[in-house]
Amino acid sequence: MKFYANILALCALYPAADAFMVQPPKTISNSLKATYSYLGNLNDDKPEKANGSTTYASSTSQGFTAADASVTNGITKKASATTTKSEPTLSKYTKPRTTKEIFEEISPVTVQGGSLRTCSFEESVDRVSVYLKTEGRPLNANVELWQGPDNSPQKMSVYLEDGSLRPFRATVETPGSSNAVAIRNTGQMEFPLTAGLEVDMSGDESPADRHLSTSDYRTVQGGAVYTIPFPPSVQSVQVTLKSDGRPLNARVELLQGPNNNKQVMEIYTEDGKERPFYVVIDTPGSGNVVRIVNTATVEFPLTAAVEPYIIDETLVEKPAPGGMVWS
């Protein structure tokens, strides 16, 4: 034991035996700082350079939070700024439009008296809206849907007392291919008309089916008459006629006063279910009445729906006290 103790004493006195002695620090280290934390910027420090690379003492930089940026080997990776999506704006077609507003948006053509104009379109077109008007003169026209040679699955005969005050506006369903719309001005040469078309390729539900699903309707038997009056606040009326698949023959009239026809439409549809009739009638003034006549026999009933399309709230009559009504 004494021999080993002497050897250990000699090793402690040897200059190279530094491992058994407490060495003084050769370099002075900086104080510890939070360089990156998911809790945010703890020290509110600015970026500092250390060992040739940039490290960030703050967890936020230029509006980006710790979830938006990451530091790896001195290289800062910054994610793209998050942008808030703007709310979708309602399309102008979602709101009811007057026929005069539509004429300002389409490119109409002039049909002289006694002449014929046709318009064909692609198979992808689901339906076509037909618009007719004049400069204030009467309008007499025939509107037909052609599908192939010598085949007219839908026909309309239109009369307007004033084509400017009450323009014509109807929707024609165009299922299948080889469809074309023919507009013939049956008036004299002194009475030209303006015609326009608007195609629908959206694949959505037809206006006729949407109208029947959201409003009350009734069955009009063959040879029966259905009338409904409207107050002066109603500026336009939408009318839908449909059958169960059988042919549809009807007449729709707008009256203002006893036997005073302002607008008359005679309709024939080969299949009233596949091609229902949908029309929007302008009803300015007071005393307007819509009359629907099923001109077919009793074996061919039809379904009719009539309701206001545009209402002017400024013309809504308030009830008088005590229920007084002047006539």
Task: Walk me through the structure.
- The protein has three helices and 20 strands.
- The protein is mainly β and 327 residues long.
- It has an eight-stranded antiparallel beta sheet with strand order 5-12-7-10-18-15-20-13, with helices on one face. An eight-stranded antiparallel beta sheet has the order 6-11-8-9-17-16-19-14, with no helix packed on it.
- The longest helix is centred in the N-terminal third of the chain and has 12 residues, at 2-13.
- Residues 27-43 and 47-93 have low confidence and may be disordered.
Gist of the model:
Helices cover 8% and strands 38% of the residues. It has 327 residues and is mainly beta. Strand 16 and strand 17 (261-269) form a beta hairpin.
